[in-house]
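Worked problem 6 (solution included).
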Amino acid sequence: MAIPVRMPQLGVTMTEARLLRWLKPEGSAIAAGEAIAEIETDKLLSEIQAPAQGVLRRIIVSDGAMAPVHGLLAVIADATESEDAIQELLRESKGHPLSEILIQQRIQPPAPQSSTPPRRITPLARRLAEGLGVTLEQVTGQGPSGRITEADVRSAARAQSPPGSRGWVRASPWARRLARERRIDLTMIAGSGPEGRVIGRDVLAASTPPPPSAAQRASGLRRRETIPLDTIRRTTGQRLRKSLDESVPVTLTTEADATALVELRNHLLPTARVYGHPQPTYTDLLVHLVARTLKNHPLLNSSIVGDEGTAAIAYWDEVNIAVAVATDRGLLAPVIREADRKHVDQISQELATLSTQARNGTLPLDALGEGTFTITNLGQLGIDAFTPVINPPQCAILGIGRIVPRPAVVDGSIVVRQSITFSLTFDHRILDGWPAAAFLHELTEALDRLLERSASDW
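Solution. The predicted structure is:
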């Protein structure tokens, strides 16, 4: 029986991905669940596992090519399976335009392949090797079954560095990619990121702008440089346009007393230090508070499902909070699943791990999917209020502003209180202003009552 290998859908909005390379050549025997290819989406680097045991009889999509979600990538079959059965599967998969073009090129007997098995290497190690210029043929894998790991590449990078050089440089994945494209030596760049890490803007600053063309000079403006939109920026733009085209966004803004929030965080910090936990941030506390408030406002935790003729509102049982994280490549929103059931220390540890993975480009496959509500915090940058854009298919997003001391009237007296601004954007197709305002009202009241809750509640 011929078994198709298709491009997986790793997120609700994913439409295509790049097949970086095949880990197995045509004609090789494979086991069910074995990694056979590496793919790259706008957000993640992942592997495709074989759906069945057999022989990789036909590869359709070549290394480096883009392929649509559910598009046919290859065919697995027994060594005794007839060529006619494989051809029939190829003909049945000619629905998608891109798949059809690829398949038309490959309806022919496979060419003989080398019997030399490819070296096994983790996706992160491969990307690191490319960034460091490490020759993989000279790397000895210390992982399972001789697989090359990130540690192996780092060791090889130090060994291959010429005497007197600075060796390996701390740099973000996006900075390494820019450096490769622009042929810039990372060792010559002073990093402005955390702990001297080289980030994207450092590489851009080190780039020598090309001389302006005649057309550029004729326009009256001299173009310093032109940077093509990368995949993540294009995808972000498409998602925002989809959000604005398909939803009816309305934003409500309110100011709340955050004095109790500040006091609670100061109270929790010593405990976190004692137990070696990540110190809770204001975002961690607000994820916890928003998730519990959403349980009383199910409309804010819903989505429109179905097409135009059968559209309906789906209320989600889970409260999965997506938290916007800024990275060198753009904005990502990893998800804290069932946040309403978790204590602050759990949320804090999860979010710290997910944020680090997002910035390093190592988020797991399911970290970006199935969010039901999004939080984005620009308070650290001194922003009070803004208009966040809904992350489809969700119906609402909460923008968090800075916490700042302001005068307030309490019991007839003017006192200084800590103030925070919330900006809630919601889809007017699903709910009206009143239930959205009711959610914000309950959230601000919950802030005032934070210190009344028992310690075990946190």
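Discussion: The chain has three domains: 3-106, 123-206, 233-457.
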